[in-house]
């Protein structure tokens, strides 16, 4: 999965982006199947926890192949994991921020109309671009900024679902909802770009970084299981509702997570966002075939905007996948470069 040379070829980048997109699309379709066809619903928090465990073991296995021997693997783990509590603490930041993001997204969804939530939550795409510019000292052209906001609108339309009338009146606090969505959007942009900066700011192996990240992720997700569904898990069991299809979904999520880290390492978080948007479109098209979903005008328009935005962002430009010295350009010049 890792390229043999430091100068990563365009072909390898395209390969990683394609695999990530296809895996994400397949994962979404499989997840929809488990939620619509399976009779026994599993606990989603336990599935997330198991996903982190599988990603940890896969990363250890790939690191073992990279080091070439068991002795070197043990030495690497001792030096970079057990012997580096500071680095573990550094990689715990994204896990904690992502946990905060998920909780804030839930609060926002509980206090905003679904349509408002769908639109405002997509602001995480331009927020990621802004964090990339400010934290990694990169620059985006006006056309690239335009394509980022076009992608934001396209994803919103693709996922748009008309509001349905309900007899149940739920008390909502819009100000709390907008505050929560703002925190969730900022967390999404910051966590992804922070992880990218950690990956690209040192020569430490990608798989060592993944191991550090997933160890803290396991702790955070176990805490999430306890807080969200602890009583039900104790009553019915940790693996309640698990079927072969559920395990397949967990496996896809694990592989997708590994490829996501590769994409972030050798491209950037903005490209990851474009890949995720393409996966949404592909999974929806697949769901039309498999589950009989209806293609709407808003979906068609949104898919068109996603495709156009990907094309515009991919037009020839300077390489922005490497961190540039922060002193070379001012913040204003980095925000918009013609």
TrEMBL record:
Membrane topology label: Multi-pass membrane protein
Protein's cellular compartments: Golgi apparatus membrane
Pfam families, per the entry: Nuc_sug_transp
InterPro entries: EmrE-like (IPR037185), Nuc_sug_transpt (IPR007271)
SUPFAM superfamilies for the chain: Multidrug resistance efflux transporter EmrE
UniProt KW keywords: Membrane, Sugar transport, Transmembrane, Transmembrane helix, Transport
Membrane spanning stretches: 12-30, 42-64, 143-160, 175-195, 207-227, 239-262, 274-293, 299-315
Entry similarity comment: Belongs to the nucleotide-sugar transporter family. SLC35A subfamily.
Cross-referenced PANTHER family: NUCLEOTIDE-SUGAR TRANSMEMBRANE TRANSPORTER
Name of the featured protein: CMP-sialic acid transporter isoform X1
Organism: Apteryx mantelli
């Amino acid at each position: 999965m890792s390229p043999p040379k430091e100068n990563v070829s365009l072909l390898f980048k395209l390969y990683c982006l394609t695999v990530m997109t296809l895996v994400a699309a397949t994962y979404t379709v499989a997840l929809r199947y488990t939620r619509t066809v399976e009779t026994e619903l599993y606990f989603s928090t336990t599935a997330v926890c198991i996903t982190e465990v599988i990603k940890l073991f896969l990363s250890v296995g790939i690191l073992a192949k990279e080091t070439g021997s068991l002795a070197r693997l043990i030495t690497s783990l001792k030096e970079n994991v057990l012997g580096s509590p500071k680095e573990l603490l550094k990689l715990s930041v994204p896990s904690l921020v992502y946990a905060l993001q998920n909780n804030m997204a839930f609060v926002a969804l509980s206090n905003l109309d679904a349509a408002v939530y769908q639109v405002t939550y997509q602001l995480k795409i331009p927020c990621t671009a802004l964090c990339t510019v400010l934290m990694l000292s990169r620059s985006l052209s006006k056309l690239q900024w335009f394509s980022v906001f076009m992608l934001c609108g396209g994803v919103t339309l693709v996922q748009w679902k008309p509001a349905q009338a309900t007899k149940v009146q739920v008390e909502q606090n819009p100000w709390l909802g907008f505050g929560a969505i703002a925190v969730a959007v900022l967390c999404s942009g910051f966590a992804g770009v922070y992880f990218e900066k950690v990956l690209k700011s040192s020569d430490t192996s990608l798989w060592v970084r993944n191991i550090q990240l997933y160890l803290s992720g396991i702790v955070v997700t176990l805490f999430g299981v306890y807080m969200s569904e602890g009583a039900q898990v104790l009553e019915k069991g940790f693996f309640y509702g698990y079927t072969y299809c559920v395990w397949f979904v967990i496996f896809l999520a694990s592989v997708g997570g590994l490829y996501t880290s590769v994409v972030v390492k050798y491209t950037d978080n903005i490209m990851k966002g474009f890949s995720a948007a393409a996966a949404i479109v592909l999974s929806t098209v697949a769901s039309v075939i498999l589950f009989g979903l209806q293609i709407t005008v808003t979906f068609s328009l949104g898919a068109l905007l996603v495709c156009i935005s990907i094309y515009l962002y991919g037009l020839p430009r300077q390489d922005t996948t490497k961190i540039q010295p922060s002193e070379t350009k001012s913040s204003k010049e980095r925000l918009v470069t013609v």
